Amino acid sequence: MRIQEIRSNIQMTRQNIKTGQGEFQHGFVMLIFIISLFTQCSGNPENSNQNQTASEKESSLQNEAGNSAVIDSAFSSIFSSSEKPDDELFAFKKGDKCGFINLRGEWMIQPKYDAAYSFIEGLALVTLDKKNILIGRTGQSIPLPEGVTDLSTFAGGLAPITIGGKTGFINREGKIVTAPFMDFPAKDISMPSEGMHMVIIDSLFTFVDSTGKIIRQPGFEYALDFFEGLALVSNQGKYGYIDKSGNIAIPMIYDVGWSFSEELALAGIAKGENFQLSFIDRSGKTIIPVPYKIVNPRFVKGLTFFGIEKDGKRQFGFINRSGQESFPPVLDEVKEMVASSSKEIGKVLGFKARKGDLWGLFSGDIMTTIAFSNIGTISEGLAVASTGTGKDQKFGYVDANGNWAIQPQYDGASDFSHGLAAVRSGETIGGKWGYIDKSGRKVIGLQFRYAYDFLGDIAMVQKDNKKAIIDRTGKVLLEE
For 373-396, how does the pLDDT look when each residue is reduced to its tens digit (9 = 90+)? Predict the structure, then answer.
């Protein structure tokens, strides 16, 4: 790997973080994710830029990891928060007002808000009379300081607020714990990672902990979010890691580095025009020397992939946490697999790999045959997979061994969630969705314009241009 290429990637990532315009690393292939529907009740939310984390902007090392294997799902996009919404209450719209329902489809907070977002840590952001306010689970308002002109989602123990053009943080009682000091609005503050908000002071990166304390000043020229208790930081072109107290945990001696995953982080020392890469542990000790110029910086269930140049093209294989090759470099492409189901939203579950025109699944001890035109993640024991391409493409479900559990027969399919999966017959636009169980039996007939994941005993569907909440029998409980 040439140093200039790495530095170019890092500089672009750094600039993306500063401007808030970085792309999500975990890019999904279609449009609307189920969680976004249940957690956001607004046609054009004012806070649509919130919740980006630096981790979602972190560049990989010469790979395209992160493209999801969610297949042909008209309701799969990114839920851009590192914080998961509370499971018991969901935003839903009735007429032109929003409220909150429970997992039985019952109104727990009546629809009276102009916009509503998910409950996180027991608090939700709502808009009423063009003002953003925080409410508790019974609908009670949280008192806010005087002069608040902007407010964002509560998470990691804090919520960003803007007063007099400056942004700081309040705690759960609505009291200011970090005096406003940032020159950008609250809605542009990223969601925290492991309870730590990344902030910028005088063009330097630092963090605010869950008590509102700025952990280190001055900050760093570059930083990534906390993962497994440590954050990558950089000054004067050298990289190291800090702990949540702001102390240097691993000295800044590296010329490139990435975040920790499964107790290991990829870091490199410049050697001429290339890097000597290695996976290090939390003490900075080299655990796996990396002889490859191309390697994915994240381990997932004990595996990551590497690449070599062969006959003028790249080919990929896998190594385990001992550095041993668990699959030879004969693959043409490898991508990270990101969960789309409501239970593990955004979590990297494994990898899919292509050889020629066909794909297989690699995850821990799972290595399916490379025999599918596309394949998704294992969810509740089964993965969406397809045969054929274009109009001849049909979807079914395979088990962890790559054997067909439900034969390919549908024109669209989503992951299993709470025992049911949405499937489609017909074109993406104009086709009909319904639900099957793990035996392949149609539980709810194919009748909906769109059908989304089940969350407990309810799911959202769209029929006749209106959203509705149904139960596991297909009975409509609520309509817009």
Answer: 999 888 899 999 999 999 899 999
Q: Report how far residue 212's alpha carbon sits from residue 176's, in angstroms, rounded to the nearest whole number.
A: 8
Residue type (1 letter), 248: I
Q: Report how many domains make up the chain.
A: 1
Q: CB under 8 Å to 472, separation ≥6 — which residues?
A: 420, 443, 444, 454, 457
Pairing type for strands 432-436 and 442-448 reads: antiparallel
- pLDDT tens, position by position, 447-470: 999 999 998 889 999 988 888 999
Residue 58 included in any domain: no
Higher-confidence residue of 3 and 66: namely 3
Angstrom distance (rounded) from CA 76 to CA 65: 18
Asked if residue 219 belongs to a domain, the reply is: no
Q: Is residue 362 included in any domain, yes or no?
A: yes
Q: 345 in a domain, yes or no?
A: yes
Alpha-carbon distance values, 230 to 240, 367, 421 (Å) = 10, 31, 37
d(CA 15, CA 17): 5
Could you tell me the residue range of the domain that residue 335 belongs to?
299-416
